[in-house]
């Protein structure tokens, strides 16, 4: 039986919140979704019945391999849709999230497989995040936050920890797009803001921004 829209929203939240041991607390999940604790508890009991999580009272949830696969398949639909909107419909990367939120709940596997084929089977979405394959497998990325880079380092902007519309617009206004080479020129001791060079021009980024930008050397 296919997951409902509400269940898919919970699955996607679990995907984003789990730690390295596939654990997350009910409280974290409740806050992330802005849903009351009793409702979250009840949903996780249903997930436990489906073997998507291991639920024990007063303990963190453990998301099972089956649960992670289901969650990854929801994320796959979302990220494929974002890529289609950018690559084939010329949407800006800051304008696709809300539309993808709606289309990710389409249940037809054939629809998304065809989208994948038309896009020539992309590995990453417009924000540099890996797209799970049809089995829910996902590519591991070895990236670091720009905030952890030192003066003089040259790195490539590869992905984001946050892809909300406001932040994407902020990056677009600074002409800071994926695959841009970044040279770290200066880091302020006071607030850790960073002066960088991109495309032969200088930009100043706040600590809040550099923590959300993921790069590779």
UniProtKB/TrEMBL annotation:
A Pfam family reported for this protein in Swiss-Prot or TrEMBL: Fe_dep_repress
Q: What is its main location?
A: cytoplasm
Annotated organism of origin = Chryseobacterium caseinilyticum
Protein name from the UniProt record: Transcriptional regulator MntR
Q: Which InterPro entries match?
A: DtxR_MntR_Metal-Reg (IPR050536), Fe-transptr_FeoA-like (IPR007167), Fe_dep_repressor (IPR001367), Fe_dep_repressor_sf (IPR036421), FeoA_core_dom (IPR038157), HTH_DTXR (IPR022687), Iron_dep_repressor (IPR022689), WH-like_DNA-bd_sf (IPR036388)
What keywords does the record list, in alphabetical order?
Activator, Cytoplasm, DNA-binding, Manganese, Repressor, Transcription, Transcription regulation
Q: Which family does it belong to?
A: Belongs to the DtxR/MntR family.
Quaternary state and interactors = Homodimer.
Question: Is Cytoplasm set as a keyword in this record?
Answer: yes
Q: Where in the cell is it found?
A: Cytoplasm
Source organism phylogeny: Bacteria, Pseudomonadati, Bacteroidota, Flavobacteriia, Flavobacteriales
- The segment(s) forming the HTH dtxR-type domain are 1-64
Spell out where the chain crosses the membrane: none
Functionally, this protein is described as follows: In the presence of manganese, represses expression of mntH and mntS. Up-regulates expression of mntP.
């Amino acid at each position: 039986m296919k997951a409902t829209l509400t269940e898919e929203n919970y699955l996607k939240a679990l995907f984003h919140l789990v730690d390295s041991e596939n654990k997350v607390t009910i409280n974290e999940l409740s806050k992330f979704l802005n849903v009351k604790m009793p409702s979250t508890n009840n949903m996780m009991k249903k997930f436990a019945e489906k073997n998507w999580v291991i639920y024990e009272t007063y303990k963190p949830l453990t998301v099972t391999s089956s649960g992670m696969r289901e969650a990854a398949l929801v994320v796959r639909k979302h990220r494929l849709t974002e890529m289609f909107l950018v690559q084939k419909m010329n949407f800006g990367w800051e304008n696709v999230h809300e539309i993808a939120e709606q289309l990710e709940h389409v249940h037809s596997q054939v629809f998304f497989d065809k989208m994948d084929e038309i896009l020539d089977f992309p590995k990453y979405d417009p924000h540099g995040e890996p797209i799970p394959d049809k089995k829910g497998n996902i590519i591991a990325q070895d990236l670091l936050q720009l905030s952890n880079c030192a003066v003089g380092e040259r790195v490539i902007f590869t992905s984001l920890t946050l892809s909300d519309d406001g932040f994407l617009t902020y990056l677009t206004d600074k002409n800071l797009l994926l695959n841009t080479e970044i040279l770290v020129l200066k880091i302020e001791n006071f607030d850790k803001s960073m002066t960088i060079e991109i495309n032969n021009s200088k930009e100043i980024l706040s600590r809040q921004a550099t923590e959300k930008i993921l790069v590779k050397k």
